[in-house]
Design a protein that fits this description.
The complex is a heterodimer.
Chain A (H helix, E strand, L loop, with lengths): L11 H7 L7 H31 L6 H35 L8 H24 L1
Helix pairs in contact in A: 2-3, 3-4
Chain B lengths: L10 H22 L4 H39 L6 H24 L1
Chain lengths: 130, 106
Amino acid sequence: MDSKPTPKPRSKRALDLLGGGDEPDPRFTLANERTFLAWIRTALALMAGGIAVEAFTADVFLPELRKTLAIALLVLGMLISASACLRWLNVERAMRQRSPLPLPLLVPLLSIGGALVTAVLIAFVALRQA
Amino acid sequence: MASPHNDVGLQPERTLLAWRRTLLSMLAVSSLFLRWVPYHGAFAFGLIGVALLAVAAIWLGQWRRYRISAQGINDNRTPAAMGEVLTLSLTCAALGALGLYVVLRF
């Protein structure tokens, strides 16, 4: 705190995106950032799964199953990384306006998406056994 | 050595480490594309190159970012990491999109 440069003014575009309001507690800003990063890691894990299914399971899964699972996981990962970014921005905006935080649409997205992928896998395995 | 900020919750450090973990995960994901090198050669290397560039840019930016966060704790206001967040999301979505392209195309 000895040297205290005046806080740099934000760029115009950043201010437009953040939509005015007051600066929130810096610890909230950092917490929002870490939550965003946790979602990105979730998305990366799903995408890693998609790529791994496509690249490494040629001997295990039928080609259709392989493709379906890979596409589903990659799409889910992309959706989650896009929504994580939007959610980070919306939370940041809400904190600046001192308004309630938006509900996380990401949570049902991840649960339903994960359940669907698992259901497809189970269905394929069950049909193959029959 | 004196800490550059007085936050007992160590928020700047935790945020820095969260970025590091995320970037390491991204490196792990992009290295999976190495599996495609024998089939899609240049394309796979391109994918890895894009991911490496983004990771390197954000990683190097974290030194500065940490100082900004620590100063932000002292000033009681910190700028949102707009550039880093957008870069990371876009890279992540691009990796997914290009992976999807490979799966659908071949």
